[in-house]
Write a structure and sequence with these properties.
The chain has 68 residues and is of the alpha+beta class. The chain has one helix at residues 39-45; strands spanning 4-7, 10-12, 18-21, 28-31. The strands form two sheets. Strands 1-4 form a two-stranded antiparallel sheet. Strands 2-3 form a two-stranded antiparallel sheet. β2 and β3 (18-21) form a beta hairpin. It is globular, with a radius of gyration of 12 Å.
């Protein structure tokens, strides 16, 4: 918590459909624990180091909730 993170991301549904991405824009910057990201996303990033690339799978319960 309190660590400043800058990253590019793409957000995809389980079927692979991309619903958001910032690879064509400037990277996003946030501070872990500042409330701007879902707790499940922050938790999944713990342990990553500068330059790491990882596919994170966030369950609905840790993300935006079940499909409505």
């Amino acid at each position: 918590p309190g660590t400043k993170v800058t990253l590019h991301f793409s957000l995809r549904l389980k079927d692979g459909e991309m619903i958001d991405s910032n690879f064509e824009r400037d990277p996003a910057t946030f501070v872990v624990g500042d409330g701007n990201l879902l707790p499940g996303f922050e938790k999944a990033m713990f342990g990553l180091l500068e330059g790491d690339r990882k596919t994170l799978v966030i369950t609905p319960e840790q993300g935006f909730g079940q499909h409505n």
